[in-house]
Write a structure and sequence with these properties.
Structural class of chain A: alpha/beta
CATH architecture of the largest domain in chain A: 3-Layer(aba) Sandwich
Oligomer: homodimer
CATH class of the largest domain in chain A: Alpha Beta
Number of domains of chain A: 2
Largest sheet of chain A: 7 strands, mixed
Shape of chain A: flat
Strand content of chain A: 15-25%
DNA sequence: CCAGGTCATAGCGAGAGGCTATGACAGCGA
DNA sequence: TCGCTGTCATAGCCTCTCGCTATGACCTGG
């Protein structure tokens, strides 16, 4: 059984690939050259692969090394998001820029935005508060937050607002599920009649779903399961608990590589706009304006 | 300075979230309850967040805990791909199913496919050989590989073939680059006249690019830089070395969250079909057929 | 009020992983 | 041809992390 490699070694490997030398990579991460050498050997042993072609004039990645670097890169990128996200949650109190966001945005978009902003301004501390869209509006309105991001269908009155991204709720099922092989879209009635795995009442995702179904003139069946985060819903679907309705942001990669199947529903528009909000009377300046610019590009 | 959390602790946290108890999660990963308890405390301290709400009847995730679990989930998923990928490279020799794939497919799609197949058949060992599309065809033709995946524009003669996915090369630039703010698409001539960061000659990506440009009647300028993997190209673009042409698979997430900008090119069709290939005379059976099925669904 | 469940603390032992010092070897210039 | 410089590897030591067991403190339910 191969144990999980530690992240520092992966980072080291990536650096060796970029810098072409074990010693240089060691210096970059602040460890001695022998230590780096030893760590890389350990990594190779633990993966059972030769990753580096060592010579007296430096080290180059082998074929396998290139592959592992590619995979490591993604692990490390995601880890960086985790770290910036965690930091933003942590420094909430005494940050220079106070951001409030609804859950989906906070989980899938905000860390990346904040990370990019901090790439431009490394000494800027950003605080992130996550609540539901209604409370985001209140926080921005009261000045407790400088900038908010909401997923609510109704832009709140009294606040300046601007769309930053689009999102769509989708019906997903595990691969074994009969719906995965359907060729015809589901009817709204069929969907409404089926017990689903959904987010808990009060969440933006759930609200959107209820409202869209209501507008289509149907009432949702009693949920199969109510869960407190998109991640939990996703896990339940993968475990084949049943169909679910969830933001495409949460399952984008699962669908891209076939782990989950998206089921289209006839005549149901589950798109929604993700918006930035800020106090109406103030023009956005400084870090808040920069963050908005980062969020808006794309 | 917050150090990188170790992956085992993240996994433990995810399990606590699912199982609702520290002890149960500890048992699941094969460590003692006190050890798990201690590790979780360490994780909380290192992130500076309270992740669990402990009670005498179990432990529940806090708000911050939910966020961290979501971010961790993605780190762990990527790590799982790394591990299956590495294993597939390692057991190449004595695997029960021999797969050969070109680089882009091997890096971005194959680990997920193999992971899903191994989810169904845990004791099946899959070996992965990565080379260029031409050699993949040769390996399959000679029987050295049971199933191949190629990104070449010309399906090789004498082999059964079936499309499994689509891919597209795209022009990407860093956000500061002038092209990032363009509203008009680039002309083919403009693109061809600009030195680009590209994959090395001989790679499927480079071949596709050369061929498409040739068909459009232009010749590519001398490359700014030639690199040996899509990951390296991506890094160069992020470092603002210059524009690059790379598979969308490599930069999908970067574009989705605005780290890189895609530039459209007028009248250039850079789509390509990714195909499975296998010997013409044999009907696919067993693991090879199963893997093809996994790759084809979506 | 005890039984069975939870999580936390204490103390100990082993091993991972850090460091410095040194060796081996290739390439380059004098 | 002979150092000089730069590469990576090995050896030996020491620290501190992280695992374990044993135990405590505390709810909940019978």
């Amino acid at each position: 059984m191969t144990r999980a490699p530690d992240l520092d070694s992966l980072k080291l490997l990536v650096l060796v690939g970029q810098l072409g030398s074990v010693g240089a990579a060691a210096e970059r991460v602040g460890i001695s050259q022998p230590t780096a050498s030893h760590r890389l050997s350990t990594l190779e042993r633990s993966l059972g692969l030769v990753l580096l072609e060592r010579s007296r004039r430096g080290s180059r990645l082998t074929e396998a090394g290139h592959m592992v670097v590619g995979w490591s890169q993604r692990v490390l990128d995601d880890l960086a998001e985790l770290m910036t996200g965690a930091e933003a949650l942590r420094v909430r109190r005494d940050a220079e820029l106070h951001v409030a966001a609804s859950m989906t945005i906070a989980e899938y978009l905000a860390p990346s935005w904040i990370g990019q902003l901090r790439g431009q301004r490394p000494d800027l501390y950003v605080g992130l508060q996550v609540t539901n869209s209604e409370r985001v509006a209140a926080l921005v309105g009261s000045g407790a937050a400088d900038l908010g991001f909401i997923e609510s269908p109704h832009p709140p009155a009294g606040l300046a607002t601007r769309p930053v991204a689009h999102d769509r709720l989708i019906v997903v099922v595990a691969n074994g599920h009969p719906w995965a092989r359907r060729r015809k879209p589901l009817s709204v009635e069929e969907l409404a009649a089926t017990p689903l795995v959904v987010r808990e009442a009060g969440s933006g995702t759930r609200e959107t779903l209820d409202e869209v179904l209501g507008r289509a003139g149907v009432a949702m069946a009693k949920p199969l399961l109510e869960l407190g985060s998109a991640t939990a819903v996703r896990s339940a679907v993968i475990a084949a608990t049943g169909p679910a309705v969830v933001s495409e942001l949460a399952v984008r990669t699962d669908i891209a590589d076939g782990r989950l199947a998206a089921v289209s529903v006839d005549g149901l528009d589950l798109r929604r706009v993700l918006r930035a909000v800020w106090p109406n009377d103030r023009k956005l300046v400084g870090p808040a304006a920069e963050l908005l610019a980062v969020a808006r590009r794309r």
